[in-house]
Design brief:
This protein has 306 residues and is of the alpha/beta class. It has nine helices and eight strands.
Length: 306
């Protein structure tokens, strides 16, 4: 049965690997790639129209709304087959906690949290069950040496209204604050996945996916020259150890998860290829409900009343 999967973060790294595998493994899938510019990634299948694109700046709510509206219009016209998947794989990490998007929200939170929330909610009524939503998280949300390897500070939770604004962490102009914003945003992703699992209609599964530490991707593209060099040229050697995962392996796990090859109850945290427990801190229904209400309000969606 023909179906559409909408995917962010498909142009490089694990997202590109996952996109290519989805197309190879599921020829009936139309992959709709969300890109920042008008140049879609060249993926196998593009020649037979299995791939198309919509442009969006994920830091901008107006841009995300426009992209979601275009997707809905293309579905209404019959141009796209039924929507059965959304993959929120795009993510960003800055060297500070002061960078903002067009609406004034801290850019890490805007891209990693608010953009995914807008896509999920604005496309919610267009999903045809069975459907699966997968949002990329990170084991940096654990905040310990085992998971962070000392490279990223652990999350520091604040009121969601504070997290959404620049300067939420001490010394906000530093790389440490930028990385704290990243790990905290990934904790927020897991909180929202738990809340989506409670609220989305039956037949729409939602999962968070941890690819593990994957050196060599574009995540550190905003970092300084030394950090970028280490991520691209030195740290990839860690994939030969249990402490890191190569892009090919991580992308393969993501594709399997999107295609339903990994059995996982809705709301699950999938660590590479298996269902696992996320951090103890990530299970907090009160915090999850507060976060839901806040992101609904910050995005102007109707569910902020709970």
């Amino acid at each position: 049965m023909k179906s559409t999967v909408v995917m962010t973060g498909a142009s490089r790294g694990i997202g590109r690997v996952a996109a290519e595998r989805i197309l190879r493994a599921s020829p009936d899938t139309h992959l709709l790639v969300v890109t920042r510019d008008s140049t879609a990634p060249r993926l196998p299948g593009a020649g037979d129209h299995a791939v198309s694109q919509v442009c969006a700046d994920l830091a901008s709510q107006d841009s995300v709304r426009s992209a979601a509206a275009e997707i809905r219009d293309r579905m209404s016209s019959g141009e796209l087959p039924p929507l059965r998947g959304f993959v929120g794989n795009a993510g960003i990490q800055y060297t500070n906690a002061l960078t903002t998007g067009p609406e004034g929200f801290e850019a890490t939170f805007a891209v990693n949290v608010l953009a995914n929330h807008l896509f999920v909610r604005l496309l919610e009524e267009r999903f045809t069950a069975p459907a699966r939503i997968v949002i990329t998280a990170s084991d940096t949300h654990f905040g310990d040496l085992r998971h962070n390897l000392g490279l990223v500070p652990g999350p520091v939770w604040r009121s969601p209204d504070v997290l959404a604004r620049p300067g939420a962490f001490p010394r906000p102009g530093t790389t440490s604050a930028g990385r704290t914003a990243y790990s905290t945003s990934k904790l927020a992703v897991i909180h929202l996945v738990h809340e989506y699992a409670r609220r989305l209609p039956t037949g729409i599964e939602v999962l968070s996916y941890n690819p593990g530490f994957v050196p060599g991707t574009g995540l550190a593209r905003d970092a300084g020259p030394l950090s970028r060099f280490a991520m691209r040229r030195i740290l990839p050697a860690m994939t030969l150890t249990p402490f890191a995962t190569g892009p090919t392996t991580a992308g393969g796990h993501l594709a399997d998860l999107v295609l339903g090859k990994v059995r996982a109850p809705t709301g699950s945290y999938v660590d590479r290829g298996r269902v696992a427990r996320s951090s103890q801190e990530s299970y907090d229904p009160g915090r999850e409900a507060e976060l839901w209400e806040t992101v609904e309000r910050l995005t102007g969606l109707p569910g902020s009343g709970g």
